[in-house]
Amino acid sequence: MKQPSFFAKILLFGEYGIIENAKGLTIPYNFYKGTLKFVDAEEHSDSNEKLMEFAAYLSSEMPDSFDIERLEKDLAAGMYFDSDIPQGYGVGSSGALVAAIYDQYAHNPIATNGLSKGKISELKTILGKMESYFHGKSSGIDPLICYMNIPLLINSKDDIDTVGLPEEKAGKGAIFLINSGVPGKTEPMVQAFFEKMKNEGFRKTMHKEFTKYNDACIDAFVKGKTEPLFKNLKNLSTWAFANFKPMIPTRLLNAWENGIQSNDYYLKLCGSGGGGFVLGFTKDFEKAQQSLPDFELEPFYRF
């Protein structure tokens, strides 16, 4: 059978902030994708076994929402998730898997076309409960973007809407990914964040400063306003360097600080951090490449 593909995602803005009701902006990243497939081969037994464990979770926690019998039958026939989305890199590997299972095995899956805010919120809740199996707790945002495959503006936990983005231009500017070289683990990073939130000083700066810079970046990016975008990106990158240092991959600490000092580029977390990809923004991609000779930069949006 021919199965649909589900693409990776990038959370441009809102990492950790969306947990505290700040805004977020997430976009599909079609460079990576995953598809449910059938094959009689030992090389995919690991994926098949992990899907069986996920199916057992769905059978226990959400039995009325899925055709568990058909899912288990297909897994017994060797179904696996064929994915090139790197795991632990902040681009939605578990989100794409959750989206694929929901699409094929949910009873009456919600269609993606013309969804109201209420339906988007309902879908996010279902997908979040599914993805909680992988991360302990999930907002549902990652599988939602992987399932809908269109940019989403997160105004708050219960207010999510589709959004149009400025068209790409063949300019000098770029948003890019840097590979830290090591995968990150979402659950311990999120737990560390909640520990930090117990500190009143951190909580105050998170709600006042992070939210201010983060939301201003989103507003400027959506409206295509480069100058206010980069002004607030510098503030956001500086704030993260001071307050999110445990989440910044060690290999990128010097590069992160260099970007703030040189203004050649600014770095920010891509997802929960600790490893995986880091996001970069620059007005001059060639200059950023020259300033980061030890890293391979993967541009995905030009302006």
UniProtKB/TrEMBL annotation:
InterPro entries cross-referenced by the UniProt entry: GHMP_kinase_C_sf, GHMP_kinase_N_dom, HddA/FKP, Mev_gal_kin, Ribosomal_Su5_D2-typ_SF, Ribsml_uS5_D2-typ_fold_subgr
UniProt keyword annotations, A-Z: ATP-binding, Cytoplasm, Kinase, Lipid biosynthesis, Lipid metabolism, Magnesium, Nucleotide-binding, Transferase
Gene Ontology cellular component annotations, sorted alphabetically: cytosol
Any Pfam family the entry gives: GHMP_kinases_N
Pathway terms, separated by semicolons: Isoprenoid biosynthesis; isopentenyl diphosphate biosynthesis via mevalonate pathway; isopentenyl diphosphate from (R)-mevalonate: step 1/3
GO biological process: isopentenyl diphosphate biosynthetic process, mevalonate pathway
Taxonomic superkingdom: Bacteria
Chain ranges of the GHMP kinase N-terminal domain: 77-148
Name this protein carries in UniProt: Mevalonate kinase
